[in-house]
Write a structure and sequence with these properties.
Double-stranded beta-helix; 7-stranded antiparallel sheet; 3-stranded antiparallel sheet; 12 strands; transit peptide; AIM24; AIM24_sf
Length: 216
């Protein structure tokens, strides 16, 4: 048996995206490996990979390992969310999540919306692009800033200052109230969803969240 640390990504692309670093194990006879993650309630799933579709791993920490003739490479413009694609002719991928793991089958002409923090992985057809982040219709809830209201009501401010104060309160609402972000996909597609959501800030950084909130 041999084992070595491997990076398949070309050195020229290391600066533009996070590489996939893994331990490659080869053996001439059957062996057994024990894998695990740092989680209070870990659940595991093994999914097949075929030429008909690829798997997009939504959260890097969910990817434990894989076997077979597979390619695992960076994907997507996001740094942490949905940026690993697994493709190949035949093989299996071991995934892990927190809480229970459920498989959702989205049929053709159906649309499914889910919290991105609950998504572990989903399938992608080679010519597929029917997926996007969307904002749900916003509720009337907003972040109240008492000192800002008191200041603007007692002092006569120019219009530009009032607009700035309003934008500041709106920005605080968007920054702190992020449960209206959803991941929208169309079928046919398979999704793996964990019941315990990951902190959204651990899978999408500040700039990515701002882009989503602005509808970009």
């Amino acid at each position: 048996m041999t084992s070595k640390l491997t990076i398949d990504q070309p050195a020229t692309k290391l600066a533009s995206c996070l590489p996939v670093v893994y331990q490659k194990v080869t053996a001439t006879s059957p062996i057994t490996l024990l894998l695990g993650i740092k989680a209070q309630e870990p659940y595991y799933a093994v999914v097949p990979v075929s030429p008909e579709y690829n798997w997009i791993i939504a959260q890097r920490k969910a990817l434990l390992g894989w076997t077979g003739n597979l390619s695992v490479a960076p994907y997507s413009r996001f740094k942490l969310w949905g940026n690993v694609e697994v493709s190949g002719n035949q093989g299996q991928v071991a995934l892990a999540g927190e809480g229970g793991i459920f498989q959702v089958e989205v049929q053709k002409d159906q649309t499914f919306m889910v919290n991105p923090a609950n998504v572990i992985a989903y399938t992608r057809l080679p010519d597929d692009s029917s997926r996007a982040f969307v904002r749900l219709p916003h509720t009337n809830l907003s972040i109240d800033i008492p000192w800002l209201k008191k200041y603007t009501s007692q002092i006569q401010l120019p219009e530009w200052a009032k607009r700035t104060a309003t934008l500041l309160q709106s920005w605080a609402t968007k920054l702190l109230w992020r449960d209206d972000i959803a991941f929208k996909v169309s079928g046919p597609r398979t999704l793996l969803i964990q019941t315990k959501a990951t902190n959204l800030q651990n899978v999408l950084d500040k700039n990515e969240l701002n882009d989503i909130l602005k509808g970009q």
